[in-house]
Structure formats: structure tokens, C-alpha cells
Amino acid sequence: MKNYLLLLSIPLFISCNSKTKTDEKTTDEKKDTVTTVVVDPPAPGDTAATNNPPTSGKIDIESFGGIKLEMSYKETVATLGQPGKKGDAVEWGADGLVHQDWTYPAEGLVLNVSFEKDKLLSTGQIFSITATAPNGYKTRAGMGISSTYAEVKQAYKKDIDPEATDKTQITVGSIYGGIIFSFKNDKAEKIFLGAQAE
């Protein structure tokens, strides 16, 4: 009788032990599960979205408030309206495009718009952005006019070009494409986004 009970208890023990191993494996699999969230890019003019720090490892050297480099003529006018003043349209030999400065005095903005000759409406886009007071826009890292030298340096510490940076200027990225902060009395008085050199 004892042998009979012993034989019955062995399969029961094995069954319980295998269930414990299965539960442990399931728990480990749950630990390794990663949830991916897809986020749509901010719409033009959405300053709340564009003022948040970037979520990827790559810095954003194109967005500034609700505008960005290469924004089309139509999007630019829809966001800012027509400029208060347009400069002379000049053809640049470096890229073969016509360039024109658009000034928005109330926003403290000067946009350099590039386009193919006689095709402003269809090919026009923002080539560079220059901001001064009273501009209140921010970069994706939260920097703007009146940000201090130390704040800008901390926000972009991994992406500063040391060869194009000194006590009065911080270059993020490079002069061939980046953000250049110019300082007076330790505060940013001018912010330039784009390429200063070809």
C-alpha cells in the first residue's frame, strides 16, 4: 500500500514542479516585454509641441517655435502671415537659388527665403532663421532670447562645436548647419538657425 501511494505521489510532484518552472518562464518573458509608443511630429504652428526637449538622441537644429528650416512658402505664410518687409531678391552663385530676407519686426524675426527664379509660390522655403528681441520662440531644448551662456552650454553640451565657440558665441552643430547663439552681457541677444557657410 505504501508503495502504491508513493507511485501516485511522483507524477503529482512532477506536475507541480513543471508548473512552477512554466510560471517562472512566463514572468521572465513579461519582464522583457517593451511597449513602443508612436508619436506624430508636431504640426506647424504648434509651439507647445516644438518647445519640448527632443526625445531622440539627435539634436533638432531646424525647429524654432512654430517654424522650421525648409518650411514651405505656403506653411510659412499660414503660420506667420506676410512679412512686414521684404528685402531685395538676389540670386546666389553658391546654390543657384534666389534668396530674399523677410522681416517680421513684431516677432523679432528675419527669415531668409530661397526659391527658384520666378517660382516663389511653388518652390519657396525657409533657408535660415534669425531671431532677436522681442522674439519669444524657443528651440526644442528650450533655449531662446535672454537664455544665459551657461544655460545654452548645458542644454547642448554634447553638440557644441568648440572651434566655432568662444565667450560671446556658442555654435551648436556647425557653421555649415546648426544653431548659433550670440551673447551680450551673458544673455543670448541673437539666435541664428541654418548654414552660415557653404
Helices and strands in order:
Elements: H1 2-31, H2 47-50, E1 63-64, E2 67-68, H3 73-80, E3 85-86, E4 90-91, E5 98-104, E6 109-115, H4 120-123, E7 125-132, H5 149-155, E8 169-174, E9 177-184, E10 187-194
Antiparallel strand pairs: 1-2, 3-5, 4-5, 5-6, 6-7, 7-10, 8-9, 9-10
- Gross morphology is globular
Count of runs of 4 or more consecutive helical residues:
5
Q: Tally the beta strands.
A: 10
Class per helix and strand makeup:
alpha+beta
Largest sheet geometry = 8 strands, antiparallel
Strand fraction: 25-35%
Helix content: 25-40%
Weakly predicted, low-confidence segments: 4-56
Provide the gyration radius in Å.
29 Å
Mean pLDDT: 80
First and last CA, distance: 95 Å
Please trace the helix and strand order, writing H or E for each element: HHEEHEEEEHEHEEE
How many domains, in number, for the residues? 2
Question: What features would you describe in this structure?
Answer:
The chain contains five helices and ten strands. Strands 3, 4, 5, 6, 7, 8, 9 and 10 form an eight-stranded antiparallel sheet that branches. A two-stranded antiparallel ribbon has the order 1-2. The chain has helices spanning 2-31, 47-50, 73-80, 120-123, 149-155, and strands spanning 63-64, 67-68, 85-86, 90-91, 98-104, 109-115, 125-132, 169-174, 177-184, 187-194. The chain is globular, with a radius of gyration of 29 Å. The chain folds into two domains: 1-35; 47-194, no CATH class. The longest helix is centred in the first third of the chain and has 30 residues, at 2-31.
